[in-house]
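Structure first, sequence second, as always.
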């Protein structure tokens, strides 16, 4: 196996620092540095960017990002047991690498970063989805980051890139694709991780759109998409009843069929309806 740096193998790092994987923190580590370097390359050019990495653990993906030339990596890790292993990476890379021991759900990392910024992470899946929704729903658009390159449970990755008409198409697909170009760039079997999880995984790369795909007020769009998919088996005229007293007329005005179900409506269709509702 080709070496990507002069640091010890990850298996040795884990043994030296006694980093037995904690289930409560979703710790399934990537130990193959060629694989982590490949994931790092999916994020795009790194040499002019600060990379925000959430959940570096023993540092496999971190080392991939640095070896691939990231200008700087800022890593946020909740588990203090990982800090000595990450300090060894700091010794090699100096100013190009910093760690903050914190919960990524609590910390705003922006003041520690210099644009342009890319986000890369292999996170526990529940934390990953929560952060994805937050990264996609800032108060103003475009957001502080250029792209998000994130590991997800395969099932969630498929929901992010799903198209209308598919059972996986829903709130996450619309939120992601309205504001980013999202694609699955790698598939990983359970054996890629130590310990292996029960599920398959996939890396999704989301490149921000400078302006959303179609104009719409984000709050109204979010409200109708939530209402439509909360009762996805119902026709729009029933599932969206609570959003406007004359919803059938509004649907027709937006070019939608009141008898369609949410999963048949394109992002453009939802945006048109949001525009019609805002006009009122
Ligand atoms: N990046 C490493 C790799 O690829 O081998 C570790 C990945 S492991 C799936 C998830 C990492 O996220 C663990 O190191 C865990 O301690 C950390 N983590 C879990 N919840 C976190 C949170 N809320 N904030 C920051 N880090 C978290």
């Amino acid at each position: 196996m080709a070496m990507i740096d002069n640091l010890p193998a990850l298996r040795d790092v884990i043994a030296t620092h006694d980093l037995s994987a904690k289930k409560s923190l979703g710790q399934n580590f990537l130990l193959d540095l060629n694989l982590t370097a490949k994931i790092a390359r999916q994020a795009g050019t790194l040499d002019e960017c600060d990379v925000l990495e959430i959940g570096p653990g023993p540092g496999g993906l971190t080392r991939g990002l640095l070896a691939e030339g990231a200008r700087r990596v800022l890593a946020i890790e909740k588990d203090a047991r990982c800090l000595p292993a990450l300090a060894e990476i700091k010794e090699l890379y100096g100013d190009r690498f910093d760690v903050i021991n914190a919960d990524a759900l609590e910390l705003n990392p922006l003041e520690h970063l210099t644009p342009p910024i890319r986000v890369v992470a292999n996170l526990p899946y529940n934390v990953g989805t929560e952060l994805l929704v937050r990264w996609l729903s800032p108060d103003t658009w475009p957001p502080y980051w250029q792209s998000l390159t994130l590991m997800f449970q395969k099932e969630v990755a498929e929901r992010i890139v799903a198209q209308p008409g598919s059972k996986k198409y829903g709130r996450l697909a619309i939120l992601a694709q309205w504001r980013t170009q999202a694609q699955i760039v790698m598939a990983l079997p359970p054996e890629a991780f130590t310990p292996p999880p029960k599920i398959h995984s996939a890396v999704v790369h989301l490149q921000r759109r400078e302006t959303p795909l179609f104009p719409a007020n984000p709050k109204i769009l979010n409200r109708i998409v939530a209402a439509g998919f909360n009762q996805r088996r119902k026709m729009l005229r029933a599932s969206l009843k609570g959003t406007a007293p004359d919803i059938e007329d509004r649907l027709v005005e937006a070019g939608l069929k009141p008898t369609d179900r949410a999963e048949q409506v394109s992002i453009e269709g939802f945006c048109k309806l949001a525009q019609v509702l805002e006009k009122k």
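Margin note: The mean pLDDT is 97.
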